[in-house]
Design brief:
Helices cover about 35% and strands about 25% of the residues. With about 325 residues, the protein is α+β, with helices and mostly antiparallel strands. It folds into 3 domains: about 1-125, no CATH class; about 135-225, SH3 type barrels; about 235-315, no CATH class. Helix 1 crosses helix 6 (about 95-110). The longest helix is centred in the last third of the chain and has 21 residues, at about 295-315.
């Protein structure tokens, strides 16, 4: 990002040694050349045209670099209404502290050296979509360089547990940010909501420590793994005088039904959006709520209770 900003705001081509002095100080010749070529290749892979030309009219061997704003801008594109709506959302990028930090640092170095810069060119990389989850930075960077992470993860009503993940990428689905990857504890692909990660994830591996499956569709994985928890209906029994949160969202209710204790002091509530993901919310009501269906939701509630009792036994 610093290289992008530096080359984008230049009114003239800037020499390689000058770039090294400003952005790669203290690097050996070998390290600098490797890092510089890598960063240029990354920019070009993203479709950013890095222009190469002579910095001196009399000495053609003095090569400089620049990104011309006109070349970076997209040409006029004809889109139908649906396509335009999707592109409108996609182009909102994220309001990112790291982006602001990179911009500030690059601009400070340029201005300090008296470089002639075009601040208006920064509009091309202006961020607009919020990504203020505390876990976003570490997971995003770990997905980019393929570094394993661990973090504390908890659903509502649950004690957070340590999870170990090889992050494949971050995706926004149904208005929330998720990290998709391979859970090394469960030996299967998993999706985790960033808002449920407690604290900041920790990088536990080395860059390049795993491979992302070829052709993986992160959005498809998120939809597939998250879908049952948000669309499957459920039927629960709530003791009279309890479960008010469930009653507010229930589509219908039957009063005076027989409960698990044999009494008729229970109401049957029909919920339209519930599933295994809702187990933590239901556990908050304790013995005043009983799950009739689906079986997967009831099993998840039982499994969490058993896990809790087991953890209490281990701590004694």
């Amino acid at each position: 990002m610093k290289l992008l900003i530096m080359l984008l705001v230049q009114r003239r081509h800037i020499g390689k040694e000058r770039i090294r002095e400003l952005l790669y100080p203290g690097q050996t010749d070998e390290a600098f050349n490797r890092m510089f070529e890598r960063d240029k290749d990354d920019l070009r892979a993203l479709g950013v045209p890095v222009d190469v030309s002579s910095t001196d009219a009399f000495f053609e061997d003095e090569i400089g670099y620049r990104i011309k704003p006109d070349d970076l801008q997209l040409p006029e594109i004809d889109l139908n209404a649906d396509e335009a709506a999707v592109i409108g959302l996609a182009t909102k990028v994220w309001e990112h502290a790291r982006l602001a930090e990179a911009t500030s640092e690059a601009m400070t170095k340029l201005v300090a050296t008296g470089a002639e810069v075009d601040l208006g060119a920064l509009d091309l990389v202006s961020p607009r979509l919020s990504a203020d989850e505390p876990a976003f930075d570490v997971l995003w960077e770990s997905a980019l360089d393929r570094t394993s992470v661990e973090f504390e993860y908890g659903r509502p009503g649950d004690q957070p547990r340590t999870r170990h993940l090889q992050p494949w990428g971050i995706v926004r689905y149904s208005g929330r940010w998720y990290v998709v990857g391979f859970d090394t504890d469960r030996q299967d692909e998993r999706v985790f909501r960033l808002s449920r990660i407690v604290g900041e994830p920790r990088r536990t591996g080395r860059p390049g420590g795993f491979e992302v499956p070829q052709g993986i569709d992160l959005g498809d994985v998120a939809r597939r793994l998250d879908q049952p928890s948000v669309q499957e209906p459920a039927v629960v029994l709530a003791r009279k005088g309890s479960g008010y949160g469930l009653r507010r969202v229930a589509s219908s209710a039957e009063t005076g039904v027989e409960g698990p204790d044999g009494s008729y002091d229970w109401d049957r509530l029909h919920l339209t959006h519930a599933g295994p993901e809702s187990a933590g919310d239901l556990l908050a009501y304790g013995e005043d709520v009983y799950v009739e269906s689906p079986v997967a939701l009831r099993d998840e509630v039982i499994a969490r209770v058993e896990a809790f009792l087991e953890s209490i036994g281990e701590s004694r």
